[in-house]
Input
Amino acid sequence: MADFFHGISISSLIGILIVKLTTSSFTLSVKDIWSFASGLKMIIICYGVIFPHPKIAKHTSYSFLILAYSLSNFIHFSYFAFKVKTKTSPRFLFWLEYSNFYLTYPMALISEMILLFLSLQFIPDESIHELFTKFVILAYIPVAYIVWGYLKNRKQVKYTQVIEKRDRARQAAQNVNVPAKAVGSTAIPSIPEEVELRTLN
Output
């Protein structure tokens, strides 16, 4: 299981590096920074906490951490596999891509904090390492609040607004195909000049 966790922990960072190195422009967006920071955090947890103190891996929180990472990566890569192959994705998978954080993020967050706390028993007292670990544990709370807000905003922009635009476009297309009914006089309903039917996500 440890080797599996090593692979999961470095998959995000390797993925973004491969994408950036194989594209013509090496510009970083907010999404890229978020992916890089998440991948770096997973590597730190793996090789900075679990690997030096393997006894911690016997705790139940380690299993929940692997479960959270695995679910998140499975949904993410399944979604983009559909996008690459078909230029679109099933609506349920689209929803999962931007909603799975409601489950996976708290699960990973709590598991990481527990593992960091357990690692304190293996760190020399009053050392810089101990102070740094305690600082990281305390920093998890405000950082988690910021990240939670970012994830909710990303869902609003990337999923909710896209679905609303798609539904409006579908409704407009249906209205175009509805025959006009004359009531009292020949009435022609107004029809939008352009109806965008392309995939919006």
Summary: The radius of gyration is 23 Å. Confidence is low (pLDDT under 50) at residues 180-201.
